[in-house]
Design a protein that fits this description.
eight-stranded parallel beta barrel, three-stranded mixed β-sheet, 39% helix
Length: 418
């Protein structure tokens, strides 16, 4: 048992994160659901019923409370709220309001994401984020959601816009009569194959300036609407890659930091908070981002085992934003070895404690993920969760890491067990 510095302030949030499409299941009106069904799809399997979180949300929140957590991040699914353009489903809004009310009644801070990679199918078929009307369409959805946000403190407009700026290209085949051919063309153009590690910077093309502008415009519109109509604190969550230059390529570091991270972090200077999402560190070399160095320990998705990446990400975010308050909204490891999950998270939290002790304004830590879920192109074989789930019965089974992190939460980070 190791005692950390008493760095964590009273009211520091401890919890875990989730995402609607990856957990809820049966998201039949979304672009991601449609992509999963297409021949030639990059998805290895369909999301199907997810982990049945749309029906078992109360059970999950009760588990959050029993473990000792004080915060739970979840998403509102646009495809459920607006299944057809201009048609707002009051039952969907009421459903998400019930989750918010239950969180608040149980002393759990709901951290809400309005867009977590998936969009309505109608939106994708009408041109998606590349359409001139995209920002207006997203703004209309955000406006429709504002009435259910009373009592909520933390709202993220868009999850990982720097990753999604590229990822939204996956929905392009939905606009064509022969989607299989388009999938193949995208894969060939971007050098992406089934063997790649997945949705992360080193297996994806760099986001374009045009894509960045779209994400920034959508975020700014949503932020303005939320500030006008609610009292929530508004931010978005940014994937921070912990980039480090290989010797001799320091001149390339600034370029890749800018296109992958800094554009989005600079936009957070005007936000109430920014979500930091960190998993690993990457080298920048002659060909750009290199991923895990040869011979290094890697996770299930091929990322280098780097618990120190979180501290690097927090300090980088603090520097670029000029001091915007931060929440760690995702940090974790894909592994079947839960002892390794505890070791990784221990190292990450020790770095977090150092950052807090040095005066960085960090308001909470939310682990990715709460329950083993649908990990996009990988399907269900990749396990980031603190809680295991039976794929047939959907029974939840907390892992030792869940109980361990719960004890850390109860002590407000005073002790971290190795």
């Amino acid at each position: 048992m190791t005692t950390t510095p008493s760095a964590f302030p009273t009211g520091f949030l401890w919890g875990a994160s989730s995402a609607p499409h990856q957990n809820e299941g049966d998201n039949t009106n979304s672009d991601m659901w449609a992509l999963e069904q297409l021949e030639g799809s990059p998805f290895r399997e369909p999301s199907a019923k997810g982990v049945d979180a749309y029906n078992r949300w109360q059970e999950d929140i009760d588990l959050v409370v029993s473990l000792g957590f004080t915060a739970f991040r979840f998403g509102i699914e646009w495809a459920r709220v607006e299944p057809e353009q201009g048609v707002i489903d009051p039952d969907a809004l009421a459903h998400y309001r019930r989750i918010i009310d239950y969180c608040l009644s149980q002393g759990v801070d709901p951290v809400i994401t309005l867009h977590h990679f998936s969009s309505p199918l109608w939106f994708a078929q009408a041109g998606g984020w590349g359409a001139p009307e995209a920002t207006d369409r997203f703004g209309a959805y955000v406006s429709a959601v504002t009435p259910i946000l009373e009592g909520v403190t933390w709202v993220a407009t868009i999850n990982e816009p720097n990753i999604f700026a590229v990822m939204h290209q996956m929905s392009i085949p939905l606009q064509y009569p022969d989607p299989t051919a388009v999938f193949a063309q995208l894969a060939e153009a971007h050098g992406v194959s089934d063997s790649d590690a997945g949705l992360n910077a080193f297996s994806m093309p760099a986001p374009t300036e045009e894509a960045a502008r779209i994400m920034l415009a959508a975020h700014e519109r949503a932020r303005a609407i939320l500030h006008e109509k609610t009292s929530v604190k508004v931010g978005w969550t940014v994937a921070i890659q912990g980039l480090v230059a290989r010797e001799g390529y320091e001149d390339r570091l600034d370029h890749y930091r800018r296109i992958w991270e800094d554009i989005y972090l600079e936009a957070s200077r005007d936000d109430d908070w920014v979500g930091v999402q960190s998993y690993t560190s990457q080298l920048v070399g002659p060909n750009g981002l290199e991923g895990a160095p040869a011979g290094s320990e890697v996770t299930q998705v091929g990322w280098a085992y780097r618990p120190d990446a979180l501290e690097m990400a927090l300090r980088r975010t603090w520097e670029v934003t000029g001091g915007t308050p931060m929440l760690v909204t995702e940090n974790g490891i894909a592994t079947t070895d839960d002892t390794r999950r505890i070791d990784y998270t221990t190292g990450a939290l020790e770095g977090l404690a150092r950052a807090v002790a040095d005066g960085l304004d960090i308001r909470g830590y939310l682990h990715w993920t709460f329950i083993d879920n649908f990990e996009w192109v990988h399907g269900y074989d990749i396990t980031f969760g603190l809680v295991a789930v039976d794929r047939t019965t959907f029974e939840r089974s907390p892992k030792p890491s869940a109980y361990w992190l719960g004890e850390v939460a109860r002590s407000n980070g005073a002790t971290i067990a190795h």
